[in-house]
């Protein structure tokens, strides 16, 4: 179920793991939190064409209670062209999960500049640029979720 209110999303995911998604042109980065929303771990990078089935497996494996989707907003919270693609994919994910009787709260969060931050972070961790590029999206998903918790920890 798509949620429009931060407090409602936090209430529905209280003491539950949250999966974060960084949806790109061809790949989707995935990260997950612990139940206390203190630790965020980068998980996987999935091909976009398989995102529904891979995400469903991840939800079941980690018993996740919510999904946070990065949305690349421009200045003044205007939506970019890729926002529509991400919103459409998210609606498909929501429908897929509902058909599997696994309705989860889904919330959008501004992901502006997270890919740049992830690139800087992965440069420090991985010396091989090929390895860095393979893992970039899951670190972007981690940063999205970290940012969300940092902004909303006291709500």
Labels describing this entry:
155 residues; alpha/beta; Nucleotidyltransferase, domain 5; 6 strands; 24% strand; globular
Explained architecture:
The protein has five helices and six strands; from the N terminus they run βαβββαβαβαα. With 155 residues, it is of the alpha/beta class. It has a single domain, classed as YqgF/RNase H-like domain (Nucleotidyltransferase, domain 5), CATH 3.30.420. Strands 1-6-5-2-3-4 form a six-stranded mixed sheet. The longest helix is centred in the C-terminal third of the chain and has 24 residues. The chain starts with a strand and ends with a helix.
Could you name the CATH class?
Alpha Beta
- What count of helical segments does DSSP give? 5
Strand line-up in the sheet with most strands: 1-6-5-2-3-4
CATH arch. level architecture:
2-Layer Sandwich
Characterize the overall form: globular
| Category from helices, strands and their pairing | alpha/beta
The percent range for strand residues is: 15-25%
Biggest β-sheet, characterized? 6 strands, mixed
Cα-to-Cα separation, first versus last residue: 21 Å
- As residue ranges, the low-confidence spans are none
Helix/strand order, N-terminal first: EHEEEHEHEHH
Radius of gyration: 15 Å
Q: What's the β-strand tally?
A: 6
Mean of all residue-level pLDDT scores = 86
What is the helix fraction of residues, given as a range?
A: 40-55%
Overall number of structural domains: 1
CATH level-4 homologous superfamily: YqgF/RNase H-like domain
